[in-house]
């Protein structure tokens, strides 16, 4: 395996030096282009998207209706097959309960744990997928690695287009002494739909996940800036470095297979248009975005945010938040125009402009843009 | 091209290490001088200035009247040919509206977008230039690269002394599929007045802009500490490094042409006298200053601040601010005496003292002063 | 002695570069495991513990009753033989006084100095040890190096299982011109019970303490995030580096003795489950934890925190705090389940999950987990 | 000249890497000592002090009475010969005016400028020195380099023991086109009293000042954490590096002269006992301390703080502060006991303990203590 800079933290104990997205920035090079000459299109397997967006599978921002709206805006909405929409026939009262609790302060973790204690109903999975399919958009749902074998039949029977197998930390080699673990490689080989799998944190895990036959690998372990995986588990993945490492795995796997290109999808505190541009500049093919979508007026939780890991029954990580006011429609959040300058609306219009101002025509070229470390973030 | 320190952020993905102005400081060397023996004079083309000041073309601080006052104090005021003074016959009610909105909080971006939606009138450009010329100061106006060909005739016909072609990110090679782009080189070759052009962010862009025949190149992409170019576009230019790189381009271009010296004008969060000294110490010939001038009692927006990019119709960047109280006359802000110790008045008197305390007689020598990285900023 | 990275701070004056625990994080590697297949067991001398926990000997969290509860939860409680329980026949009124003083603000240092001015009574030491022994848990008390010779007889006569000789900074070679100093080596050689000694700050001190015959060495000089040893004494021990250095001393001593394994116990701002995981990942065998235990409803000071060094009569260091509300039982704080996501409950359940998600079965293996420097802490 | 680490900030433009005192810390080594076996004594020329303290010449903390108290506590008090006590026959009303202005907020700079506009009276200098001499302590006054030739006769005639020639930035080679500048070398050669001179910022200036015949050189340009020299002048001197560089100059000058030892006195944000220990550990022989003394109940400004440079008529730097409550007598601030743990009382008792805990008997040995870079400051 190739090696990155290492630091000797103490005698003979080494650590690799990693960089977060907000430590890295883009430097304009000598050419500029018209914004209208730039394409942000992205294609994975047979599915083409106008913007390189895969939503986080968070109930706070993705309902069947918002997944449809994301698809119509050019991205890929991912519904959580283990979320509120598949636990409750009518989740609206649950949303209301969470929003009421959040009116003045972030809702308590214990309340999240309670509403997610309700069992998942496989027939609701089918119904939700049907609703999205009927709208004509590309459909995707997320299952956890632990429940993949149990829930995948319902998901596939309902005709999903893409399956997302996602946990905080996923490996291609899960070891268990209790029965047999999910064998991702044989599971994926038997499927007719492409699979996106992750999160992975480094070159090796990314490469191993690529070898399972996945179409895309999610890189990063934390979904948002409310995550507490570092405080709770001591785990931290500086994302700029992880993306670059996964892009190296992509190149090596492309060579190893003589041409199979596995997409790298970055996930972790990608909450501004600037962060989107950085993630792609570091080598990602697409970005997984969640938290900023809560500012869309269509967001099902009315501006409140939580990630599903915050509802873990024994070891919740990540946080919940008080609501933010709506900043515009989902389309405006994604495509503009912006009426604020905080990088949280017109997320992909801004990307297009960054590409134009640095002279790149498409995303693949843009992965080679000049980067700088240092300087003060806004 | 010569190379600076690089960091491997991930496998085979490299970034250059950059330093911001506030990371760099000046170290007194063994000699000191009398303040009165020091000159801060600067000359570009046929124009000589007592202080190396080019104002930002921000409507918040530059009206025809303040441009004149800056000229009388020894610097160069730059009026925005695409700002309020050329959109409105009488911009005072617009200023009033913005100031009223700002009384308690920064005025909303949407209001800026609205007042800048009014079209530019070429005949107002002529009238404003005439007003400044009549006062006997060196005149300069700024046009954007996109509107240069449209507006330059009016600007030149009015007899401007210096033309500033400035956008956030400007290149010598703009590529378009829609008609033809501005060819800076042939455009400048045809002009009788010297041109200052920018912003550029690195050695290459600076060198290419020097080769267009410009008299000066602006280095830096952000005009003030309210900028959000990093959050919105993922673009960041650590200015100390960018200035030093552009100074290297200046040396190389001087050698390449056998003697053409193109001035480097630093732009970006130069908001204290300390930052002015640092920028010049890193290799700049002059500094573009905007935000601190709003504390002058002549400032047309009464202490409110915004940069023109904050008014962008689809992707505003940068911010607006509530007003600051006046700290004195424009002359006092520029030349002292200071009655506060925050580095925001007596901007160029402080520069003179720094030069004296480090033993330098003029700005060209001062570019060689000893620098240190590290230590705690005030 | 092996050498770590050094920095030349000035001409010919060098400093070693050290890393704090919160600068280092764990990176998941390619394998994952079931949580139930993981063991957090730790054994020192003849004593086995289900969790690698040694409590700080702080009166704020350790009474005889809580030491028993810690033992029942699988860890080692350490009572301070020079604390309130051995100075007062009934310390409850003293606790009440401190808690009353802390209701609105941290209690004043002067009050701590006053309550700790009461002399230690050897017979109370015996009584407290007896109470803990009677509950059937492994017993341990802490004495200071200065009072070891005076108090050890009472401690040993009472049948303690483990003796902890702990001061902020302890060396194997104390030099005095006033009588004779404690000779740790001969003192320990004469004992029948195993000794844990510290704190040590670097490779050399750790190695020398290992050579005294101690079973365990405490690494680190500060007990909590309220410490002020850096402001008061200019002393700082970046803990990740100190742990790794002490682990190197452990390896070298193991080789030197042909097999004596001395345990490294990390001490210093280990206040979240994430910090526990990091400390063990850097090479510690166990962690000394204090401050987080004050959130247990059994904590004797009702949520107030202080470390004994804060009561020093002439040079107090460290702070006191206003009380925190109870977060659950001591067992819940240590073993979960958690109802918050701040890393301060389910301290060792989280460790187990980190080990599972990085694929390690036991603590000794986990000391080899991949580390990363950089990235943003939560 | 020997060279330290350099950084290439941009192409061919280099800066040295400097470290501030709070980035450096002391690491206990393997030996410890009794506190009572440690000496903090310092001797310069014929004058011996029990603690290595030279006060800042700030009127906020040094009156003739407090200079006497400092001397009685074992240090050296320095009265400003160009301060309030030599401008006003009775400065008490001026102190009152400043304290009244400071009751709720820091007093305005303009008020300082006004009270310092009063001329210095040479006969008051004589009277103040006489008052201190009569108390039997070692006397020292500070003059600025600009006024040294004018004021020195009065100072010397009054029988001062040590003369301190101090400005923010002082060089051995002041260049002027207006008349002749002070020639420090010939001036000092003609004197009977030893001279302390500074501040110097690097190896070269320190070495040149040593060659003037001074007994001590002050290293550092900023007197306190309220300084704004960085914002105003762009000048910053990371003190740990500057001290180490000056200590190297001291060694080289010692060799060059075959035995003349010039003392290095550190000056700049030395405001806690920890900072005192760090400064000495980096190589200083003594420390110049000002701001913490305002917490002594004898402080003439009643807890308000300002440095004389804050009163500069055209370019004030540095700040003023609201008063702090008294923390005890001057003796308690210097020698303890402390009743708080913030490092701001028992300043030199803490030093003694740090020396004991790291095993050093005297200050000269302590300059070799192990240092570490990194870790979190308190």
TrEMBL record, chains A, B, C, D:
Gene3D superfamilies: Aldolase class I (3.20.20.70). The keyword Phosphoprotein does not apply. GO terms for molecular function: IMP dehydrogenase activity. Keywords: NAD, Oxidoreductase. GO terms for biological process: GTP biosynthetic process. It holds the Pfam family IMPDH. InterPro entries: Aldolase_TIM, IMP_DH, IMP_DH-rel2, IMP_DH_GMPRt. Residues 19-305 form the IMP dehydrogenase/GMP reductase domain. Belongs to the IMPDH/GMPR family. This is IMP dehydrogenase. It comes from Geodermatophilus nigrescens.
């Amino acid at each position: 395996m190739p090696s990155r800079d290492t630091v000797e933290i103490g005698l003979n104990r080494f650590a690799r030096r990693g960089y977060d997205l907000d430590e890295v920035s883009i430097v304009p090079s000598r050419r500029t282009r018209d914004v209208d000459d730039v394409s942000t299109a992205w294609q994975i397997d047979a599915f083409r998207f106008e913007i390189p967006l895969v939503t986080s599978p968070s109930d706070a921002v993705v309902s069947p209706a918002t997944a449809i709206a994301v698809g119509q805006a050019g991205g890929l909405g991912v519904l959580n097959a283990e979320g509120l929409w598949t636990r409750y026939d009518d989740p609206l009262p649950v949303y209301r309960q969470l929003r009421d609790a959040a009116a003045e302060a972030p809702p308590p973790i214990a309340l999240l744990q309670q509403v997610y204690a309700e069992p998942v109903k496989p027939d609701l999975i089918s119904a939700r997928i049907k609703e999205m399919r009927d709208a004509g958009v590309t459909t995707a749902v997320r299952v956890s690695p632990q429940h993949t074998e149990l829930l995948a039949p319902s998901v596939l029977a309902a005709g999903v287009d893409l399956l997302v197998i996602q946990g905080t930390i996923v490996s291609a080699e899960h070891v268990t002494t209790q029965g047999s673990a999910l064998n991702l490689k044989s599971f994926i080989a038997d499927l007719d739909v492409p699979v996106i799998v992750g999160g992975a944190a480094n070159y090796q895990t990314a490469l191993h996940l690529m070898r399972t036959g996945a179409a895309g690998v999610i890189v990063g372990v934390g979904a948002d800036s409310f995550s507490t995986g570092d405080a709770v588990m001591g785990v931290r993945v500086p994302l700029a470095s992880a993306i670059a490492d996964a892009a190296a795995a992509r190149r090596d796997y492309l060579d190893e297979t003589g041409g199979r290109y596995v997409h790298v999808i970055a996930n972790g505190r990608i909450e501004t248009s600037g962060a989107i541009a950085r993630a792609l500049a570091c080598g990602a093919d697409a970005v997984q975005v969640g938290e900023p979508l809560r500012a869309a007026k269509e967001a099902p939780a009315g501006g409140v945010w939580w990630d599903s890991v915050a509802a873990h029954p024994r070891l919740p990580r990540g946080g919940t938040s008080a609501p933010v006011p709506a900043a515009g429609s989902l389309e405006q959040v994604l495509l503009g125009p912006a009426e604020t300058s905080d990088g949280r609306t017109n997320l992909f219009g801004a990307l297009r402009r960054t590409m134009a101002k640095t002279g790149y025509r498409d995303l693949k070229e843009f992965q080679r843009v000049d980067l700088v470390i240092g300087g003060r973030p806004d």
